[in-house]
């Protein structure tokens, strides 16, 4: 039977990584999670790493600069900040930290060398982006950071390589500052301070991708959080109701008493057809729910917002993530 | 807006290539496969090139990655339908093997940079999809195996990637940086300023520390090896690109009736026009079907009436009221979809549109594909 669950909540962490199949709602859900975690006067940072300015579009603010910017105020006074990390800027930071090279770095940037290097070696890009995320997370240890950082991460197909890139680096550079930095980054990512959440829909392909992704993440010993099922269509009808509807329930009489006097039988037949479609969909969705349940991870469901996603919609999703709906 | 007649398209003997494009998850693979089944059953000799089909669909069509070439699909009622699933690494390997002597080919295939490039590089899948299309085309031109090739395109957020990625990858591989980077001593001092050259030295140093010194060396040997074996990557990409402009080619753009997908479709349509590429039409897939028999307002009013009169406390009343509300929600969804389709049409009045209804179940077998084909 279709149960709409809201009682489960997202497990606590300092770094929430939100991945999932393309288009399932990673950016939307990451933003809602940042809002949810900012409740009761806390401060959260929402980070994006794919250079698409998805956060700015979602919150309807100008493109984010290379600096942390406040984008929303949560209920009861919390704040959501946002940062769009650009690999070029992150590389300049990196060259500066390790080699005091900012000026040469700018020259390289003008030539397009940085763009080139991050293209030829996608791993380099990931080193820089995860490095930046961990730098922000670790500020908390010094008492001036965010209560939580939410990362709108690359899709399921790339998430394990993305999070694990520093393991490879620390193997390649066996000592020195780069090695130490890589170890430091992994000491946060591969620890209970991090939770990797996967967004999915109740459809075959996204669920399959989620299951494959979970297996990969487990093999890489990365910390899993929750499965976030997005765009769930709620219905007050369950499969028993629908079965009854399609097996000769006196719908036409009800319609007549509700004032539908023209084409009543045809309308009743139409509603029965629609009930059959709906029953078929619910059965299919339950199959996918069962597949997700086999992972043993907490599963949270978020409703489909029929009018599309706006700030109000984000608050609705945030309320579901806090389990207060 | 005119109606997009897909049967006329697949029946047209002058059309020999159909390319299904669109943004991620809209139904490109489903549309390509459904067109394939329908065209075959209407008498064409068809080959469908799919990319990453859903597991169950792949099983139903007997697709496997085994040999990276088309195999007959069983269960097609009449006509010829061959289908394959793209193996991008295998395709790349075949390009190498076809252009280098065995010894050098083996050397390239063993190169770690080549292995990364051929299995996980951004743009490689698009490049290889085009490459495979080129191969199937020439096989078909040579021996007449098929008279219609239908290609699916890789999942990508951005539909234009299919057109741009091969060229980008080609330019990148043929480009000057890869040469400077792989032979910094020779190139950097001369072609860059002093400060940049110094920066570059440290930069390659950082790169080799972060990535391992071996990586840069591998890139270097790879570039040297491909240089002497087969012509530039860019020329290859250009050649297949030209194929897409031919008269016998038709693009079918697929979108769902949602703002994001239709925006991508619009970009694609505009790009085809700029590049003089033949657009056949737009398939709007997974459209909510509604019956005009009962309007949303009327359904909502009736549900309210049942609830207010207490009829909804009986099973019949409660279920009927809920069904009426479901019906109203369907109509509202359909209206929103028509609204976004209308915006597309206003901007692109000449693009022919076909609507394919959303089926209650996903499409995972030949019967499902046939059903989609009947809805075209
Ligand atoms: N719960 C929801 N209800 C309704 N619409 C939603 C919901 N969640 C997301 N969407 C819509 O779905 C689309 C995709 O969402 P979003 O951009 O968050 O996905 P994504 O996974 O980040 O995509 P990408 O892979 O392109 O980065 C957007 O148009 C968004 O507004
Ligand atoms: N008209 C339809 N009604 C119901 N389900 C559909 C319809 N068209 C496609 N689907 C389902 O939608 C899902 C996505 O379709 P498909 O794989 O064809 O999309 P795609 O554009 O190829 O995706 P990708 O970009 O990931 O390659 C599949 O599960 C498919 O069965
Ligand atoms: Mg996104
Ligand atoms: Mg596909």
Write a structural description:
The complex is a heterodimer of chains A (about 325) and B (about 375). Chain A has about 325 residues and is an alpha/beta fold. In chain A, about 50% of the residues lie in helices and about 15% in strands. Chain A has 13 helices and 8 strands. Chain A has helices spanning about 25-35, 55-60, 85-100, 100-110, 115-120, 120-140, 155-170, 175-190, 205-220, 240-245, 250-255, 265-295, 310-320; strands at about 15-20, 45-50, 70-75, 80-85, 150, 195-200, 225-230, 300-305. Chain A is elongated, with a radius of gyration of 24 Å. Chain A starts with 14 loop residues before the first strand and ends with a helix. In chain B, strands 3-4-2-5-1-6-7-8 form an 8-stranded mixed β-sheet, sandwiched between helices. Chain B folds into 2 domains: about 5-290 and about 360-375, P-loop containing nucleotide triphosphate hydrolases (Rossmann fold), CATH 3.40.50.300; about 295-335. With about 375 residues, chain B is of the alpha/beta class. Chain B starts with 5 loop residues before the first helix and ends with a helix. The chains are: A alpha/beta (about 325), B alpha/beta (about 375). At the A-B interface, helix 3, helix 4, helix 5, helix 6 and helix 9 of A face helix 9, helix 11, helix 15 and helix 16 of B. The structure holds adenosine-5'-triphosphate (2 copies) and magnesium ion (2 copies). One adenosine-5'-triphosphate sits at the interface of chains B and A. One adenosine-5'-triphosphate (ATP) sits at the interface of chains B and A.
């Amino acid at each position: 039977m279709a149960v709409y669950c809201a009682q489960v909540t997202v497990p606590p962490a300092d770094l929430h990584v939100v991945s999932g199949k393309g288009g399932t709602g990673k950016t939307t859900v990451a933003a809602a999670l940042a809002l949810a975690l900012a409740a009761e006067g806390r401060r959260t940072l929402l980070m994006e790493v794919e250079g698409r300015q998805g956060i700015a579009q979602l919150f309807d603010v100008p493109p984010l600069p290379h600096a942390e910017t406040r984008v929303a105020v949560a209920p009861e006074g919390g704040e959501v900040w946002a940062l769009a990390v650009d690999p070029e800027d992150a590389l300049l930071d990196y060259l500066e930290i390790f080699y005091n090279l900012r000026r040469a770095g700018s020259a390289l940037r003008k030539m397009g060398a940085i763009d080139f290097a991050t293209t030829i070696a996608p791993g380099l890009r990931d080193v820089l982006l995860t490095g930046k995320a961990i730098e922000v997370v670790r500020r908390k240890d010094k008492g001036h950071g965010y209560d939580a950082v939410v990362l709108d991460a690359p899709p399921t197909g790339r998430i394990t390589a993305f999070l694990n890139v520093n393991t490879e680096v620390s193997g390649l550079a066996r000592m020195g500052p780069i090695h130490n930095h890589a170890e430091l980054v992994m000491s946060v990512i591969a620890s209970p301070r991090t939770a990797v959440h996967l967004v999915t829909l109740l459809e075959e392909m996204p669920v399959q991708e989620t299951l494959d992704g979970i297996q990969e993440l487990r093999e890489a010993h990365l910390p899993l959080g929750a499965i976030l099922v997005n765009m769930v269509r709620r219905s007050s009808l369950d499969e028993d109701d629908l079965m009854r509807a399609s097996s000769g329930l006196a719908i036409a009489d009800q319609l007549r008493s509700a004032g539908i006097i023209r084409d009543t039988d045809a309308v009743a037949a139409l509603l029965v057809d629609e009930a059959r479609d709906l029953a078929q969909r619910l059965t299919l969705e339950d199959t996918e729910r069962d597949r997700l349940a086999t992972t043993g991870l907490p599963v949270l469901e978020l409703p489909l917002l029929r009018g599309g996603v706006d700030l109000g919609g984000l608050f609705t999703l945030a309320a579901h993530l806090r389990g207060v709906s | 807006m005119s109606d997009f007649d897909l049967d006329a398209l697949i029946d047209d003997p002058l059309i020999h290539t159909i390319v299904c494009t669109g943004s991620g998850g809209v139904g490109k693979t489903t549309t390509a496969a459904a067109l394939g089944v329908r065209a075959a059953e209407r008498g064409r000799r068809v080959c469908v090139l799919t990319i990453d089909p859903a597991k169950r669909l792949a099983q139903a069509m007997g697709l496997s990655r085994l040999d990276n070439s088309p195999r007959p699909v069983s269960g097609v009622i009449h006509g010829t339908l061959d289908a394959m699933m793209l193996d991008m690494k295998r395709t790349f390997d075949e390009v190498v093997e076809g252009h280098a002597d065995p010894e050098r080919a083996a050397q390239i295939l063993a190169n770690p940079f080549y292995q990364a490039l051929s299995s996980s590089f951004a743009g490689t899948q698009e490049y290889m999809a085009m490459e495979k299309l080129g191969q199937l085309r020439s096989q078909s031109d040579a021996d007449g195996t098929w008279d219609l090739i239908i290609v699916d395109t890789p999942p990508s957020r951005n539909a234009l990637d299919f057109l741009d990625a091969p060229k980008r990858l080609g330019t990148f591989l043929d480009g000057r940086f890869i040469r400077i980077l792989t032979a910094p001593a020779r190139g950097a001092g001369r072609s860059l300023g002093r400060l940049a050259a110094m920066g570059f030295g440290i930069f390659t140093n950082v790169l080799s520390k972060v990535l391992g010194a071996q990586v840069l060396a591998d890139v270097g040997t790879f570039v040297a090896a491909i240089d002497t074996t087969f012509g530039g990557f860019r020329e290859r990409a250009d050649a297949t690109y030209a194929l897409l402009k031919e008269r016998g080619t038709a693009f079918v753009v697929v979108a769902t009736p949602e703002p994001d997908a239709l925006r991508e479709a619009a970009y694609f349509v505009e790009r085809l026009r700029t590049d003089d590429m033949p657009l056949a039409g737009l398939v709007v897939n997974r459209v909510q079907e509604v019956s005009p028999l009962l309007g949303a307002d009327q359904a909502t009013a009736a549900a309210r009436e049942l609830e207010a009169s207490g009829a909804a406390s009986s099973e019949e009343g409660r279920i009927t009221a809920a069904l009426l509300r479901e019906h109203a929600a369907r109509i509202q969804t359909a209206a929103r979809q028509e609204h976004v389709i209308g915006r597309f049409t206003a901007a692109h009045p000449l693009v022919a549109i076909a609507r394919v209804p959303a089926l209650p179940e996903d499409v995972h077998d030949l019967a499902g594909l046939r059903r989609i084909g009947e809805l075209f």
